[in-house]
Amino acid sequence: MFPALCRRLSVFLLILSSTYAGLTNLTIDDTDTTHWTFVGSWNVITPATPCPLCVAQPDANLAHNSTWHDGGTRSGSFSFQGTAVYIYGIDIHNPANVSFQLSDSSINGFHFYSGSDPYVYNSLFFEATNLDASVPHSITWLMEANSIGGGESALFDYARVTVDQDDLGSKSSGSSIASATSSATNISSSPAPSQSETPSSVATAHQKAIGRTMVGAVVGALGGIALFAVAVGCILLRRRRCAKLNNTEEGISPEILEPFQLPRDGSTPPTKLKADLLVSSPGSTTTAQTPSPASVSPSEGSGTTGHPALEERLRSLEQFAATFPPAYS
Prior knowledge:
Residues 1-21 form the signal peptide. This protein folds into 2 domains: 2-223, Jelly Rolls (Sandwich), CATH 2.60.120; 263-323, no CATH class.
């Protein structure tokens, strides 16, 4: 039973690992013009081209690749091909309202930051999951001034696209993810939710990474616990089988116990019992004989006159036989 369970568990873990091993996240920086299109006069901030006149001055060391796009009431698009997409930016105080729309789909999103922190890095602006990876997709967005403080700006940093590793080598250039100048990170996550779910505009990249790490850790922990339980079960089963084979009391040979077993009907053991027990002591050449009635003392009830060693041995064996329980098998 346990060997079969071990094999089935191993096959299950192998299938589970192969299911998620092919998923990969490609990170595409905002400076990659193959996928990003910024409409209007955007400020492209890089280490070589800073923007000292821009109102927003986030820490470049905390931005992806130390670059971002800063624009006011502008628009743009992002083209990709994969099963999921995530747009990240840098939240600022009093930002613009940003509306997103995925092409050939009913998925749309809205992002607005109302927190008190001056800058929030790796902020998730938009996400779409469970997409058809066989066709290209495009995300368009439009920025408008908010009605609270009149803010008009938004900072776009990078995007992540989930693809299958097997498809990377088969895709052509152009809108293909394989042609992107980006970094790939293996992920282990649960299946994506359905398209009918409303995209979350307040989750952060850090929360996403923690979620994927927790799922992978739970799967690994469950697999390890299951393997450990099966191994312990196999060991216990083997010990139990060995214990069944050892059906004698420890230190007592079956040949010694057999003469002391009483009949099932409760009758007295045959008189041959005592005669067989009167054997020579170790190292002695004298053979014990069955004592005659005259040589037996009425007070002792057993033994031989003039043989203290034999009498003591016989007395010990009689006491052992009197206390040993009868056998019923």
